[in-house]
Specification:
The strands form two sheets. The protein has an eight-stranded parallel sheet with strand order 5-3-2-6-9-10-1-11. A three-stranded antiparallel sheet has the order 4-8-7. It has helices at 9-26, 41-50, 76-83, 105-118, 155-160, 180-184, 199-207; strands at residues 2-6, 31-34, 58-61, 63-65, 95-96, 124-127, 149-152, 174-177, 188-193, 225-230, 242-243. It has one domain: Rossmann fold, CATH 3.40.50. The chain is an alpha/beta fold. 28% of the residues lie in helices and 18% in strands. The protein has seven helices and eleven strands. Strand 2 (31-34), helix 2 (41-50) and strand 3 form a beta-alpha-beta unit. Bound molecules: fructose -6-phosphate (F6R). Residues 35-39, 62-63, 76, 128-130, 134-136 line the site of fructose -6-phosphate.
């Protein structure tokens, strides 16, 4: 696992965008798994600004809330449309987001796994890290061989995402998410984590015991993982990290 610590959120966003744009220049037909949330906002802005083409790229979002239509402003489809899809030449038929309104969520999840398989698997998965260590919406206790499925969100996750809905009670209780097993099959993985609020979970992710109680620790079994942290998120680490920009304060 390569861990890179940069000065701040802006540097994290720029580095992540540079890495992903470089990846797409080398592999213009790559298949990506993509996150939503607060952390990747700057990354998407910087990625769009690179001007890299998505004409042959396929994207699979990690997750979607159960019961929200694509038009709902809190849906991850809406997030992707406003942050990325509306700004790049990614063909509509190459944009895969789980359908939160599917009458049969299990069938929807099977369909998603099949679509990933037909795309040749995921070349690069970009992930955020939840306050409780979740990746995608795989909450603590999720088995590491889990596949795409319907899940119940924890109170901690619903509180963390309340800002997108105007209160925790309005956050959906369920979601569809790629499984940890599905994520681990990606050929490369890039994890972005920003802010002092994540410092404690970053330490458990990188330096604590590998356990399903901290879902992100499953990534330690993967051969090609890069983690980009800003200095605030790296604040509790004792041993890891390579400073690639700025100076130690
Ligand atoms: C979202 C996702 C989640 C987030 C995580 C961090 O698609 O998969 O795992 O990456 O909850 O969210 P933020 O960036 O809002 O702290």
């Amino acid at each position: 696992m390569q861990v890179i610590v940069v000065d701040d959120y802006e540097a994290l966003s720029a580095l992540a965008a540079g890495l992903v744009a470089g990846f797409l220049w080398a592999r213009p037909d790559a298949t990506l798994a993509l996150p939503t949330g607060a952390t990747p906002e700057g990354f998407y802005r910087a990625l769009v600004a690179t001007g890299v083409s998505f004409a042959r790229v396929r994207t699979f979002n990690l997750d979607e809330y159960r019961g929200l239509s694509r038009e709902h402003p809190g849906s991850f489809y809406h997030y992707m449309k406003t942050r990325l899809f509306d700004h790049v030449d990614l063909p509509p038929e190459h944009r895969f987001v789980l359908d939160g309104t599917a009458a049969d969520p299990d069938a929807e999840c099977r369909r998603y796994e099949e679509a990933i398989r037909q795309a040749g698997g995921i070349d690069l998965a970009i992930l955020g890290l939840g306050l409780n260590g979740h990746i995608g919406f795989n909450e603590p206790g999720t088995p590491w061989d889990s596949r795409t499925r319907l899940v119940t969100l924890t109170e901690s996750t619903r509180r963390a995402n309340a800002r997108f809905f105007g209160g925790p009670d309005r956050v959906p209780r369920e979601a569809l998410t790629m499984g940890i097993g599905t994520i681990l099959e990606a050929r490369r993985i890039l994890v972005l984590v920003s802010g002092a609020g994540k410092a404690a979970i970053v330490r458990r992710f990188l330096e604590g015991p590998a356990t399903p109680e901290v879902p992100a620790t499953a990534l330690r079994n993967h051969p090609h993982v890069t983690v980009i942290l800003d200095r605030a998120a790296a604040g509790h680490l004792t041993g890891h990290g390579t400073v690639v920009s700025g100076h130690k304060k």
